[in-house]
Amino acid sequence: MEFNAIVDYLILFSMLFLSVTLCFCLLRGMMGPRFTDRTVAVSIISGKTILIIAALAVYLKAPYLLDICLIFSIISFLAVVVLNNTYLLKFNRRMATKNRAVPEAQDNGD
């Protein structure tokens, strides 16, 4: 068996394995009980997608796909940052309304 054929099979197997694990991460992101589970799942999904595109670039011998990997990585990083900032704003608003709803305990001077 020729070396290039072995490399092609290895790349195809790695893309298949990454696709299967990407489905598990997608399931974890949808079922995650906490926000952090979902955020980590989104980050892992974007990382695995970048790896699949890079492996596809090597398999097809198409270097322009590596540029797409770079652009996708920047967009996914910004998406995770925006997602976290949105959650923090929502959390801070919730805490502010919660603190206003609880009346202050009055000191009777005892």
Explain this structure to me?
85% of the residues lie in helices and 0% in strands. With 110 residues, the chain is mainly α. The protein has one domain (3-101). It is elongated and about 90 Å long.
Chain-wise SSE layout:
Elements: H1 3-31, H2 35-60, H3 64-101
Helix pairs in contact: 1-2, 2-3
Terminal residue distance: 90 Å
**Mind summarizing the main beta sheet?**
none
Radius of gyration: 23 Å
How much of the polypeptide forms β-strand, as a percent range? Answer: under 5%
Count of discrete domains: 1
Structural class, by secondary structure, is: mainly alpha
- DSSP helix fraction: over 70%
Order of helices and strands: HHH
Give the overall pLDDT as a whole number. 89
> What would the principal axes of the Cα set say about the shape?
elongated
Instruction: Return residue spans where pLDDT drops below 50 for at least 5 consecutive residues.
Output: none
Features:
single chain, 110 residues, mainly alpha, 3 helices
In brief, what are we looking at here?
The protein has three helices and no strands. With 110 residues, the protein is mainly α.
